[in-house]
Amino acid sequence: MKTSKSILIVEDDKHVSGMINRLLSKEGYGVDVVQNGQEALNRFKDSCYDLLISDISMPVMGGIELLKELRKDANDVEIILITGFGNINDAVEAMKLGASDYITKPVSNEQLKLIIRRVFEKQSLISEVAALHKVAKDRYSFSNIIGKSKKMQELYDVISTVSSTDANILITGDTGTGKELVAKAIHFNSLRNKKPFVPINCAALPENIIESELFGHESGSFTGAVKRKVGKFEFCSGGTIFLDEMSSMPLSVQAKLLRVLQEKKVERLGGNESIDVDVRIVTATNKDLPDMVSKEKFREDLFFRLNVIPINVPPLKERKEDIPLLANHFLEKYNKANNKEIKGVSGDVLNDMISYDWPGNVREFENIIERAVIMAKKDIIAEINLPVDISTTLMHEGPKAILANDQIVGSGLQIFMENCEKEYIMKVLKKFDGNIKASSEYAKTEEKTLYRRMKKYNLSKDDFKTTDSVSASIVRSQD
Q1: Which of 58, 57, 54 lies closest to 44, judged by CA?
Q2: Beta carbons of 330 and 363 less than 8 angstroms apart
């Protein structure tokens, strides 16, 4: 079976070179043969090979000299050396100089095929990793943070400046503005870009799990810890940890995180060993952390450690001049995903999008465009269903005004009902300070149903707790 791999054999013994040539040709490789290192160098001036198989001892130029010359010219071709049993030390020395492997005479057909297969598998893996790294770097380059407005240009400047540093960064901004995209852009444009980028959603991890996830644990350190677990800080050493929704991190874990920042060491749960870690920390929140600090809901010392370089991602309503650019970007994306050829949006649709305040920001904008592309019957999007800010209308105009509003009626029953449901749930949660049991009883629905609807609308019970109820829960946790 023919492959695209090419191999150059460098061997002065015609019997050996002929045997290897026949073997590898049958395996489907493209094979050329020369008799010494100087001939091999001449071949490399005009041709490229995926692999070179060379004898160590040859007249004119041997295998080790050939290896040195190739590496001197920055040629990283894979090289397998053939050596007699008495010259194994030479082969080992050649491995240190950059040879891929060696094989002793008499050459075993099966062993040679195995070594070649292993070398090409390694070569393929390296190429794949390099390609994935390039994709990741391209994906999170500045060109993927869309916007030409003044605020976005300022954001690009900040990212460009801070990427080359190791300073801790706190990214703030409303939900859906693209805080994680900014964190990834910082990482992939930094000197740490070949090391892991590990995102952690602090709000998604229960308090009894987050410490183990961050710092790891030893076997037997708690019920269910059947084996050692390496924490994210240890795994990510050399890279970047992105702690999203940082405001949700429990106070007990905040104290341990502060120690990691100060000492650059972690200890696994149940362990006594301090492990050195070299991690850059980028955090994000849509909450007012200074306000949480003043209410003793967030550690002040940790806040100052994290907030070395603050970055605020502007909401979409403050950069509406970017809406046409965003529309084109997402049209292109979802045309490709859905095999469509939508050319653009109508003037009326563009005006509607610019008039809308986008409480869900770019994430909401993207979802709306995706839905519009899927539902479009023509090559221009002539209408679009935008959600309505029901809460504002209810507060200022009352329920009858909602139904009298042509835009709301035109938005469709499903969207209207969903907005009403979300507003109702928010009011009930606020009435009972985020207490799920009391809220579900009042709403005459099961707790699991309420949780499911809250998840749909991206609502958290903590958002509806009053200062007194939050303070009380903190006191209980400290007790």
Answers
A1: 54
A2: no
